[in-house]
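Box 3.1 A note on notation
Throughout this textbook, protein chains are presented in two layers. The first layer is the amino acid sequence; the second is a token string describing backbone geometry. Keep the layers aligned when reading.
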Amino acid sequence: MEMQISDVLGLLGGLALFLYGMQMMSAGLEAAAGNRMKRILEKLTVNRFLGVLVGAGITAAIQSSSATTVMVVGFVNSGMMTLRQAVWIIMGANIGTTVTGLLIALDVGALAPLLAFVGVALVVFLKKPILHHWGQIIAGLGVLFLGMGMMSDAMAPLRESEFFINLMTQMSNPLLGILVGMVFTAIIQSSSASVGILQTLASSGLIGLHSAAFILFGQNIGTCITAVLASIGTSRNAKRTTIIHLLFNVIGTVIFTTICILTPLTDLFESLLPTSPAGQIAALHTTFNITTTLLLLPFGTQLAKIAERILPDRASDNVNQRRLLYIKPVDHTHEQHRIGTSAIAINGISRELNRMAEIVENNVRESFLTVLDGTPKRLPAVEDTEETIDFLNKEISSYISSVIVYETNEADSARISAFFKISGNLERIGDHAMNISEYTKLMEQKKIDFSEDTKAEIRQMQTVSLEAMQLIYPLESITAARLEKIAQLEQKIDDMTDAMRQNQLQRMHAGADESAVIYSELLTDFERIGDHILNIGEAMTQISAPEYAYSPAEE
């Protein structure tokens, strides 16, 4: 009996449910953990063994090593994690992904309707957001296994198909089997799903363990494609993370393919679990990943070095300031792999804003020096930096607009909104610095020079303004106590501005020149800089909490 159209549709529907179930679980975990994922990883990746356990635990929870690896790529790209730390998480992820196969082998799918019902009940009938998130995770697991059941039923007619049986016999060729497993997994971007389908084929008697083994090894290589796609446009270290993932699975495949050819390994698993073809595949999959991890665990640092040799640093990587260093455009085509998005986004935006704040401070410093010189010779450099500031504000704001739509954690959403305000205020400080510098063109044209008394006042304002600027970054260091200092300095700028206006009036009465008008405009810009600095401090303290503390990974 050949497969009917209804069977094909059932297979596709089952696969859709399986992948959607994984997406639900990832989204639920993301919403429940939010930015706390960052703190968890920082604490638990201090050594290789804990790192492996973390990677295995997260992957077991979301049933997708691809999602975990994509998360790690994002963490490395944003500077939250070093390349060495990433190695252990990736190794653990490969172990965690075997849980799906083990659950299928244990026929946990029989509980799928109950899991789906419990999960939906938590979402529909209870009010607490955290219970909704856990309900989403449980419901996702149920939907995943419902999809697996649909695929199993749809494949039943294939056991009597001569064409399919002949096709499966060809898989005893190691290279062909590895290629098929690799390509199929790369297409559906889920090793858990492809292993589940392989178990279904085995349970239906359509493929033996000896042939299935090579497909299984290829599936482990194919799962790397998702991380490869996610690394496009990221930093060199993020790309190296995907290389490590690929190296791990290629090395494991070479080792186990050799063992399967030279030894009766598959016969051993068949004899241990003679009545459970799905269990045989699950056991072999688990053995593959645990053994490869144990073999490569002592060589994690060497794997990182190999990745660095394959993809060395470029001399031009850090030359151009007019680009984003810590965030990349959101690729919504891979929104199903969104675990860790909140932590990655917050960390990346924070680092870009701290970088932007430092650039703004330098331009404020240059603007004071420009006006004290009384000539526009520094103006081109100030203008160039101002363009960089405008670029960063535009790109950061655009990125924030993209990610906040998908933010499901209330605290993290508030934090991202605050970052939007901060970026705008930094840009406005840059505008006022530009204004200050541009007055020198008029001063040169009209041969205006400030008196020594006026220059002394400008130097005083320079000292106070730069002191206030230095208090707003790193942004995460702005506490209530620091905000009080910022507020005091802002008030001091206001008081100094008032006093300077009065002094200028007195100088005008004494017969001052055309510098009075320019000086009055300067004072307005000085005052506005102080206002925007205070706005930044207030925005940060409104959402400050210990869990948001910024601590970049040690290089």
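The CA atoms of residues 174 and 214 lie 6 Å apart. Residues 332-337, 545-555 have pLDDT under 50 and may be disordered.
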